[in-house]
Amino acid sequence: MPARIDEEDELVCLGHGEDPAEHRGALTPPIFQSALFAQPSLGRLAAGLASEHDHRLYSRGNNPTVGAVEAKLARLERGEACRCLASGMAAVSAVLSSLLVAGDHVLVVNQVYGPTLELLRRLERLGVRHDVTLELDPAAVAAALEKETKLLWLESPGTMLFRTVDVAALSALARARGIVTVLDNSWATPLFQKPLTRGVDLVVHSATKYLGGHSDVVAGAVVGSAARLERLFHDALLLDGGVLSPFDAWLLNRGLRTLPVRMRRHHESGLAVARFLAAHPRVRRVFHPALEAAAPGSLTGFSGLLSFDLGTASWDDLARFVDRLRRFRIGVSWGGVESLVLTPNRGGNAAALAAQGIPPALVRLSVGLEPPDVLIADLEQALSEP
Ligand SMILES: *Cc1c(COP(=O)(O)O)cnc(C)c1O
């Protein structure tokens, strides 16, 4: 299946819709490296402080360089508004802290990013409970909802195994009970999945991954309705203060310009690598949404992040395989131009992995922009030795 990317989205990424007149004709929006913005009168300052979300006073609130990338992400996700933050975790934590109070319950569906779960465990101290369900069908999710559930947290495709959920069905059942649905869309990017058009209330991103795309900036984003983002701005962003710096926003905007070409290449190379691995006798199983029994649902393309089960119980074998790879660099994170390899196995955590349904010999690949034949040949040589 070829990747499908909306034509309008391609133009938005390239900068159509930006107004060079706002920037003295500069084709590339400049970096407004200023902490504050002087006001023409005391009256304007007072008015601005009364509704800071739509006034430019101080860069902990609004900054034009950050605003340019926020406007772009809002358009790509079909949301009314977006806020960028200093990291994906700052985005996750802003959403949780703006929506939850003591006594609330959060239902997490699917394998999700480890630090998101860790943060939820911390929130237990503040009286916010959570449960995780790895059964993804709507009936199982409905059965796991409680009277106190205020938030349904989705990641689809999920972490490590990349299983997808029925986004429209789950958000509909949450909405019927007055529960807010949030989806971490870092894997698919708004080019391949638009959760807000399927009933999700808020989308979060680690923009460190594909959106930035060059492993040179740490950033996050939250997208949704104007009312929800205004609340997030006042309750979390302005007070927690984890805003994105103008320079990092500029880097993120530059990354977005090539997002469509990069994602097409990640899609094709990721599928080529997945097919090669699926046919290899040493590989027990490949985890990629294209190989799932159920249809890919809301995805119009696939990114380059996938995993496979090397089928060994030996940490030494696993480490030897990873160390033999030459083109895949060993490292955390993903979504950049360069290919990366990682395993969630730390050498003594097989039981914790099993509890999440993750095989001990799972190898995660972030397939980058190198020629796919080179990457496949590298995997071939690493798999060919015992
Ligand atoms: C990396 C990641 C995050 C956190 O983003 P940071 O920018 O590293 O803070 C959140 N969700 C997912 C799915 C991620 O992969």
Describe the structure.
This protein has helices at residues 7-14, 42-50, 64-77, 88-99, 114-123, 138-144, 167-176, 189-192, 226-240, 246-257, 259-278, 315-324, 350-355, 372-384, and strands spanning 81-85, 105-109, 129-133, 149-155, 180-184, 202-206, 220-224, 285-287, 305-309, 329-330, 340-342, 362-366. With 386 residues, the protein is of the alpha/beta class. A seven-stranded mixed β-sheet has the order 1-7-6-5-4-2-3, with helices on both faces. Strands 8-9-12-11-10 form a five-stranded mixed β-sheet. The longest helix has 20 residues, at 259-278. The radius of gyration is 21 Å and the shape is globular. It starts with 6 loop residues before the first helix and ends with a helix. The model has no long low-confidence stretch (mean pLDDT 96). The structure holds pyridoxal-5'-phosphate. Residues 87-89, 113, 155, 159, 184, 186, 206, 208-209, 218, 220 line the site of pyridoxal-5'-phosphate. Pyridoxal-5'-phosphate binds at residues 87-89, 113, 155, 159, 184, 186, 206, 208-209, 218, 220.
In terms of topology, how is this protein built?
Blueprint: H1 7-14, H2 42-50, H3 64-77, E1 81-85, H4 88-99, E2 105-109, H5 114-123, E3 129-133, H6 138-144, E4 149-155, H7 167-176, E5 180-184, H8 189-192, E6 202-206, E7 220-224, H9 226-240, H10 246-257, H11 259-278, E8 285-287, E9 305-309, H12 315-324, E10 329-330, E11 340-342, H13 350-355, E12 362-366, H14 372-384
Parallel strand pairs: 2-3, 2-4, 4-5, 5-6, 10-11
Antiparallel strand pairs: 1-7, 6-7, 8-9, 9-12, 11-12
The protein binds pyridoxal-5'-phosphate.
Pyridoxal-5'-phosphate binds at residues 87-89, 113, 155, 159, 184, 186, 206, 208-209, 218, 220.
